[in-house]
Design goal:
With 136 residues, this protein is an alpha+beta fold. It is built from three helices and five strands, in the order βααββββα. The two termini are 15 Å apart.
């Protein structure tokens, strides 16, 4: 996918579908989280590592645009990139594909906070550097 260097696959589980075998819209948000956690695992030592350093990355917004249905037992690819690191904020963009077909696209917004106080703190240099390197 043009502009994206990271992807992870998800399989549509039966529990994520309705009676017609079509994935419920809420499942897409879960798949974004699966991809985001995998991205952090690959490029920043994992989300648990971030938490162990005294940070939380809170989700402050989610946007989704649904273009096609997804069906039980399909394998989808969730393309992920991180951008717009400014201060305590950053954003992920996603494209969900089935083979070469775009099924959905979305974004999530996040803020880094101190794990103890939940007060916003600047994205630490080590995390910003890891993301910048991943997005080159």
């Amino acid at each position: 996918m043009d502009g994206f260097s990271f992807s992870t696959d998800v399989r549509v589980r039966f529990a994520e579908t309705d009676a017609q075998g079509i994935a419920h819209h809420a499942a897409f948000v879960v798949w974004l989280e699966v991809a985001r956690v995998a991205y952090l695992e690959r490029f920043a030592g994992g989300y648990q590592s971030i938490r162990e350093r005294g940070l939380e990355a809170l989700t402050t917004g989610v946007e989704m645009r649904y273009l096609r249905a997804a069906y039980f037992d399909e394998t989808l690819t969730v393309w992920t990139r991180c951008r717009d690191l400014r201060g305590a904020r950053f954003r992920y963009d996603y494209r969900i594909t089935r083979d070469a077909e775009l099924v959905a696209e979305g974004s999530t917004s996040h803020a880094t906070v101190d794990r103890g106080t939940y007060r916003p703190i600047r994205v630490p240099a080590w995390l910003a550097d890891a993301i910048t390197a991943a997005e080159r």
